[in-house]
Amino acid sequence: MTSDLLAFDQAHIWHPYTSATAPLPTQLVTSAEGVRLKLADGRELIDGMASWWCAIHGYNHPDINAALHTQLSAMSHVMFGGITHEPAITLCKTLIDITPEALQHVFLADSGSISVEVAIKMALQYWQATGQTKKRKLLSLRGGYHGDTFAAMSVCDPDTGMHHLFNQAVTPQFFTERPSSRFETPFSAASLADLEAVFAQHHADIAAIILEPIVQGAGGMWLYHPDYLKRVRQLCDHYHVLLIADEIATGFGRTGKLFACEWAEITPDILCVGKALTGGYMTLAATLTSSKIAQGISQNGGVFMHGPTFMGNPLACAAANASLKLLLNQDWAAQVKRLERTLKDQLMPAQQLSTVADVRVLGGIGIIEMVEPIDPVTAQAFFVARGVWVRPFGKLLYVMPPFIMSDADLTTVCQAMLDFAQHGAA
Question: Does 166 have pLDDT greater than 90?
Answer without folding.
Answer: no
